Amino acid sequence: MGFRQLxxxxxxLNVPPSAILVLLAATDQITWGLAVMGALAAYTGVTGILxxxxxxxxxxxxxxxxxxxxxxxxPPQYLSFExxxxxxxxxxxxxxxxRERILTLEAQTSTDAEIxxxxxxPVVMVNRQRTVTGFNQAxxxxxxxxxxxxxxxxxxxxxxxxxxxxxxxxxxxxxxxxEFVIASxxxxxxxxLTAHLPAETGNRNFVLSFSDxxxxxxxxxMRADFAADAGHELRTPLSVLLGFIETLEGPAKEDxxxxxxxxxxxxxxxQRMQSLVEDLLSLxxxxxxxxxPPSNDCDVAAIxxxxxxGLKVKADAKNMDIRITSTLDETGTIGEEKELVQVFQNxxxxxIKYGHQDSMVDVKIKLVQNPPAALARYRHNRIMAISVCxxxxxxxxxxxxxxxxxxYRVDTARSRAVGGTGLGLAxxxxxxxxxxxxxxxxxxxxxxxxxxxxxxxxxxxxxxxxYRA
Length: 469
Hints:
This protein is an alpha+beta fold and 469 residues long. The protein has helices spanning 3-26, 32-70, 82-118, 137-142, 159-169, 214-249, 256-289, 300-310, 312-317, 337-354, 412-417, 424-434, and strands spanning 123-126, 132-135, 175-182, 188-196, 206-212, 297-299, 321-326, 332-334, 360-367, 383-389, 438-444, 448-456.
């Protein structure tokens, strides 16, 4: 407080005693000189007391200003009036309480932010004006230009999703589910939950949570394609069989030449259907057990030798050799021998089917230093690669990612001509995945193809621990 205010306050407080002294002098109770001296003494005393009091208030005010600007400070040490001391102490207590509250809120906010960032689903928080007020790392990865303080429509322009937000923000619904598609090289499908948050969340009134449906939609499409493809694959041989049966029951009923001509074809078509049904049943069993890792010991080199011996007749028919080379003395793994036989029989048999006459099928076994990224989650100590290399026409690169899909064929007519069902590589993929491995395919048109299976190699320590992942 200023000096003028101090004098004015002292004058105001001195008015009542001065008036009494004037009244006493006017009634000749005291002399005027005594009255003036008393008034001056009272004014001086009040001014001195107020000066000390105002000094205390200025100290407390400076302390409060320091707390306001820096949120910490040293309280005044010497205060003459108890009221000023109590006021200073109260400021200290309030500041401590606020500091503790702020630390609690900062810790809670930090924890909430960390939890939010660790959520796998993208989450975006929006206020009632449709302004983005927060998001997690997954949302930032999904929408690269996402920033707070901007309208939601700057990042998301889907009218159905924006309409769902309007429905929730208007109070007509507390939550709304919407399917949202991001068009890119590969479309991504999301189920977006728009929900109203409690009032305690402040300016973050609404949350948009994105659940990835891409894999689910792919599976649904694969199921639909699978049913259609299976029906198509079975329809052709059935039509052939029914046509020949009708012919044998009708015009060629008594024709032995027609019977001798039709029966081998009917047998081939029936065998094709039988192979298809067996492969379908095999694939269903494999998928059922895919998440259960095998537990038996087996030797990969011995399995490949066994498969090669069984396919020697087919290789000799095309004057082809199966050459097996290994840089390992120990080729053991944890697996099911019957299933690994099926894996390598399929791959080597394909190499024979599609390889050129008088060519070589090379099977190479070695350890790998830099395994595929798909195996990182299993944390295998040692990984061996088994490559089946053929000398064929090769496969164009655009077909490679789809080769392990059910019924996918690069050349449908040729595949059927050599007896393929279109399920072999799909079976191989699922069997290898059950063994906690993976398969990569490389091919060059005009030179041939390489199918490489990566499996965990047995180690001297407890190899079974590799399969707990």
